[in-house]
């Protein structure tokens, strides 16, 4: 009887341990923090495309906005306030004069009068030479980011201009809702980057599209042997080659959880327009990373191991990113360094 009782106790213990183990796997690390009060983030409303941008995307031009004739021009007519000649003062250039013979000579700026004298007036008209230093020029590229699933190349999506409540960017099927970004290529830059991507119509306080350390990460480093991941969200600007930066991000502002970030991570192939990311670990190494979409959170992320990530956080889809250029313009290097979103 006692042996049977002990057998039941052991079976109960083993069953509960197994159940607890399954529960732990089921309720493993969370992609985003749970049970937190999210703070509202400021975002631009959807940005209207110009007709040139619409046509370049194969869209019909927007309907013209009719304006009242009264706003276009006033009726021509006489001035309401007459102007008399006594109210007008003309100042002529100052001249230098010298008398060539004896007698009285009078010289008035803009006027000349003489009595029995000859007056010679000379004006210095020598050209002025201005020395200028050549200014480095940059090209600002504006466009959208097109997403394609690695497993389904027929479907096309775009990075959404409206971020999630956690300050992370997801996707949209509507091109009119796509995030518009700008990167700047200067004379001294590598043609492939890395670049900072400025969000024109995205998050306002954190205007750059950067990578943010994940909530459940064990460190600031990505590796092929780790499930660590990075949110694609709003950040401030960091320099090319910089290690993970400490500072506020859209994720930290929304969740209250401070995480490091990098923004100058984007490489753009000038031939194919493919956009890839290059994270820099704390030791300066550059791991291979993969861009994924996490449907449970509606957000894009980067990871060094897709299979390890999905085993911890559930399903994810590997995607590729392309830059669809809409316009370019030349800007001075100083202007490129201080550009702000509209």
UniProtKB/TrEMBL annotation:
Keywords for this protein: Signal
Region (Disordered): 52-136
Biased composition (Low complexity): 77-136
Keyword Signal assigned: yes
Signal peptide: 1-19
Superkingdom: Eukaryota
Stated name of the protein: Uncharacterized protein
Source species of the chain: Daedalea quercina L-15889
